[in-house]
Description:
The chain contains nine helices and nine strands. By secondary structure, it is α/β, with parallel strands linked by helices.
Amino acid sequence: MGVNLRDLIPPNVIKVISDLRELRGKVIAIDAYNALYQFLTAIRQADGTPLMDSKGRITSHLSGLFYRTINIVEAGVKPVYVFDGKPPELKLRELEERMAIREEARKKYERAIAVGDIEAARRYAQLSSKLTNEMVEDAKHLLTAMGIPWVQAPSEGEAQAAYIALKGDAWAAASQDYDSLLFGAPRLVRNLTISGRRKLPRKDVYIEVKPEVIELGKLLKALGLTREQLVDIAILLGTDYNPEGVKGIAPS
Length: 252
């Protein structure tokens, strides 16, 4: 759905995970596209150039997927990656707008490179990240070779991950977005694939990012809402299916 619920979530509902081993033995369904985009965006050279093999094929997503998955497994966590299928028709306009933003970012990246503005070049390169079908298939082949299970969703991967958790086949869904809660996942794990030391955008400041768990039941109780009412609020705020939301409605 693509809605940011962060400002609605009370801090006392968020449980910070200091050590991944706290999640040992738990099956977690991971939104694969969400994770791959993170790797594509973050794993780049100083000027924004992604990692590539000898044939010029981008490998940033594979490097991130390989090493992060190893860290997760070594901590005793059992990951299951869930890949997007065909996007809902209601989301097509949003996807077209994202493509236009990426294309504009690509042009700005080229201009930044031309004038030697390395900082701007890296920023625009990150914004222009594009996940191709070939990249997705390579990611699936890598996971298979590693013995890591993955699931092909018929449509939204995050919805499928939430359903897997809702059915009890996974302890939680993992994503940077909050949609899993709207889809009914009993728990959402954020920062699972990006935990560690991270640089703040446009600032020479680094922060320590740690995984965090949000339980749907505790969130609904704290807000005094049902899940259906939380979905209604998300629609009012705006989602990928209705980007504008309702004018004048905000989290606070």
